[in-house]
Every structure is written in structure tokens, then in C-alpha cells.
């Protein structure tokens, strides 16, 4: 198992460095789908860490991929319960569990537009004193009770990271020779500003009405986001740091350059300087932003591309970043096994030459019917054989 583990780590690291190894590495983002495939629901996975481990171990056995992400996307239900979250929900109004955690955005965002100066002046203070109490009912109370709940939440999250992430990683490594794809996660400052402060509607208005404050807020949030990426994290090209990129493809390229790019570029450069690999989930179609991608450190970044022409992506940015993804879940679910395998082989032909490619699906698997298991396994096995260098 140790030998297999080292081989898989080397295979992924070679892809990141654009060094052709023995073959193309294979991965999948399985989130709550992993539990659904063995009869669990999202509540089982979010609240019972043993069941969360069971689901991911089952997928490691079933899929036979080289590397799996830690189950960070399932979220820690106990944390949201301890704080009494106003935003994250696992049940609908009738008490039935959703397929995955639902994020409800507050009207107008958590932060009011006129509060930008407070956030910019001291983001940590603003988060502690205003943002968190608005997001969690148990923190909107007396200082004494708030301190107790914060301590409880911290301990709850520590337990989650130990039991749901670290313990799972140890089992996968020791018993299945499988590494975890990520060693942590963070967000870009503008995504954080949208997700946890102003909301999509708020940030969309702010870039027209409060241009300088948006830029200043991103700069103010940058130290917190980069600390989350590199603090206490072991250096090394692999595993990577996962960074979902939410808002960029909703911005015009000139707005992307003005608001998003400065702290985005600084985040990537700082992580690379600290010998840490950024793993970007490039949501949406990034073709209008390829010129920006080519300004990132060369062969130091992974890009999980959600959509677009992958042959074009290889030609345009394939020498700069390691491309991950390409296999449409639609093809997995709505084609014959032979058609899906042929599609995967064409991806390998287009993206594997010269290295810099990790085969994976184009979407994160969440709901019970998100992927046909038989076809998915057949495709993975075919790529492991066909993708040899």
C-alpha cells in the first residue's frame, strides 16, 4: 500500500509539473454522491463522521481512481447546529433531507453597503462582532454566551477535521494506497466578499456604485484568505489547496481585471512562493480570461475546468496550468458505455500530450443520480489503460 500510495502521489505531482509519468492520473469529485450510492442521505454524512468515512472508503474501493478529494464539500452539520446557522440547511420545511447542504443567501447580503468602511478598517473585528452574529443565531447574544458558543464551534470543527478528514486520509493511505487531493482550502477575496458578506445581488450593485470600496475590501480580506491557505500547511507540490472561483465568469473581463485580478494574482503568487500548489475550480466558461491565466506562475497551478472547448484550452493555457476535468457527466449518463469510453479516449488524445493533465469529470457529483456507476467505472478503467505515456 505504501508503494501504491507513493506511485499515485508521484503520478499526480508529475501531471502538475507537466512531466509525463507512467500514465494520466484519474480523479473524481464525489461529495454527497458517495453516500447516496450506499444508501446514506446528506444528514448521515454531515453529522456522523463514521458514515462519512464509510461513504468515501466505499468509493475508493469501487472507483479505483488515483486520488480523491477530502469530503470538505459535505460540510460539518454539527458546526451549523452549534451556531444555529441562518444560511446553511440540510432539511426542507417538511423535515426531508436535501441531496446536499443548501446555502440560502440573505436579502441584501449579511453586510450592509454602508458598512464597507468598517470591514475595510478591521475585517477580523467586523467578522467577529457583526458578520458572524448575523449568520449564526447563537452568536447574536451576550458576550459570555457568545464566547462559550465560539469555543464550542471551534472544538466541533477540530473534531470534524480530525474524524472526517484526517482519519479518513489515514485509512485511505494505509489500507488503499490512495492520497487525498487537497490538504486544505481557501477562497479568493472577492469570492469571500460575495459569499459571506454582500451576496451576489449586493456585489453586482457594488461594482457599479462602490468601486473603490470593493477594491479596498478585497485587499483587506486578502491577509485572512492567504493565511487560511498557507498557515500550518505542509509545503510541497502535492496535495494541493482547493480554491473555488465563484464570481469571475459573471464579470466582464474589464471588471475582472479591475476588481478580481489584483488579489487573485497576489494570492496565487504568494502560495507558489510558499511551495504550495493552488488548485482552482474554474466554474463556468473561462475562455474570455485565458490571457489572465497565462500570467500565472508556469506549471505551478492546477485548473479544474468546468466547461468550454478543452482542446482549445490545452492549446491556449495548457502550457501554463495543469488541466483537470473534461469528461461530461451528461456523456456518462446519456451515452452507451462504448460511446463514453471513446469520448474519454479522445480527451486523452487532446489533453495528455506533454503532460499537464488529470482526467476527471466536469462536475462535482452531489445528487443520487448524478453519475451512472457502471459507465463511470468503465471509463476510469479505460483511461488508466489508454492513458499510458
TrEMBL record:
<dbReference type="GO" id="GO:0006779">
    <property type="term" value="P:porphyrin-containing compound biosynthetic process"/>
</dbReference>
<dbReference type="Pfam" id="PF01208">
    <property type="entry name" value="URO-D"/>
</dbReference>
<dbReference type="InterPro" id="IPR000257">
    <property type="entry name" value="Uroporphyrinogen_deCOase"/>
</dbReference>
<protein>
    <recommendedName>
        <fullName>Uroporphyrinogen decarboxylase (URO-D) domain-containing protein</fullName>
    </recommendedName>
</protein>
<feature type="domain" description="Uroporphyrinogen decarboxylase (URO-D)">
    <location>
        <begin position="170"/>
        <end position="386"/>
    </location>
</feature>
<dbReference type="InterPro" id="IPR052024">
    <property type="entry name" value="Methanogen_methyltrans"/>
</dbReference>
<dbReference type="GO" id="GO:0004853">
    <property type="term" value="F:uroporphyrinogen decarboxylase activity"/>
</dbReference>
<dbReference type="InterPro" id="IPR038071">
    <property type="entry name" value="UROD/MetE-like_sf"/>
</dbReference>
Amino acid at each position: 500500500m505504501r508503494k501504491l500510495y507513493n506511485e499515485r502521489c508521484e503520478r499526480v505531482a508529475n501531471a502538475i509539473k507537466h512531466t509525463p509519468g507512467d500514465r494520466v492520473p484519474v480523479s473524481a469529485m464525489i461529495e454527497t454522491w458517495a453516500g447516496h450510492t450506499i444508501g446514506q442521505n446528506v444528514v448521515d454524512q454531515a453529522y456522523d463522521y463514521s458514515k462519512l468515512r464509510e461513504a468515501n472508503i466505499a468509493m475508493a474501493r469501487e472507483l479505483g481512481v488515483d486520488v480523491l478529494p477530502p469530503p470538505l464539500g459535505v460540510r460539518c452539520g454539527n458546526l451549523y447546529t452549534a451556531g444555529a446557522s441562518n444560511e446553511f440547511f440540510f432539511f426542507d420545511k417538511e423535515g426531508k433531507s436535501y441531496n446536499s447542504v443548501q446555502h440560502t443567501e440573505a436579502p441584501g447580503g449579511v453586510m450592509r453597503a454602508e458598512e464597507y468602511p468598517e470591514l475595510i478598517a478591521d475585517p477580523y473585528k467586523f467578522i467577529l462582532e457583526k458578520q458572524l452574529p448575523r449568520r449564526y443565531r447563537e452568536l447574536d447574544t451576550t458576550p459570555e454566551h457568545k464566547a462559550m458558543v465560539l469555543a464550542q464551534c471551534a472544538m466541533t470543527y477540530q473534531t470534524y477535521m480530525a474524524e472526517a478528514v484526517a482519519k479518513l486520509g489515514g485509512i485511505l493511505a494505509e489500507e488503499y494506497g490512495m492520497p487525498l487531493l487537497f490538504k486544505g482550502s481557501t477562497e479568493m477575496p472577492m469570492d469571500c466578499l460575495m459569499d459571506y458578506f454582500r451576496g451576489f445581488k449586493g456585489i453586482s450593485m457594488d461594482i457599479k456604485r462602490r468601486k473603490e470600496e470593493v477594491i479596498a475590501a478585497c485587499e483587506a480580506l486578502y491577509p485572512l484568505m492567504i493565511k487560511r491557505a498557507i498557515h500550518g500547511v505542509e509545503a510541497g507540490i502535492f496535495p494541493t489547496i482547493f480554491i473555488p472561483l465563484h464570481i469571475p465568469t459573471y464579470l466582464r473581463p474589464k471588471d475582472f481585471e479591475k476588481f478580481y485580478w489584483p488579489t487573485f494574482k497576489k494570492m496565487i503568487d504568494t502560495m507558489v512562493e510558499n511551495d504550495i500548489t493552488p488548485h482552482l475550480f474554474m466554474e463556468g466558461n473561462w475562455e474570455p480570461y485565458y490571457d489572465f491565466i497565462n500570467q500565472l506562475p508556469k506549471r505551478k497551478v492546477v485548473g479544474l475546468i468546468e466547461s468550454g472547448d478543452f482542446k482549445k484550452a490545452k492549446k491556449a493555457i495548457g502550457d501554463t496550468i495543469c488541466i483537470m476535468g473534461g469528461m461530461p457527466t451528461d456523456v456518462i449518463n446519456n451515452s452507451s458505455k462504448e460511446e463514453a469510453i471513446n469520448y474519454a479516449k479522445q480527451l486523452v488524445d487532446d489533453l495528455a500530450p506533454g503532460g499537464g493533465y488529470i482526467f476527471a469529470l466536469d462536475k462535482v457529483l452531489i445528487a443520487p443520480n448524478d453519475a451512472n456507476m457502471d459507465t463511470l467505472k468503465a471509463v476510469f478503467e479505460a483511461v488508466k489503460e489508454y492513458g499510458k505515456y
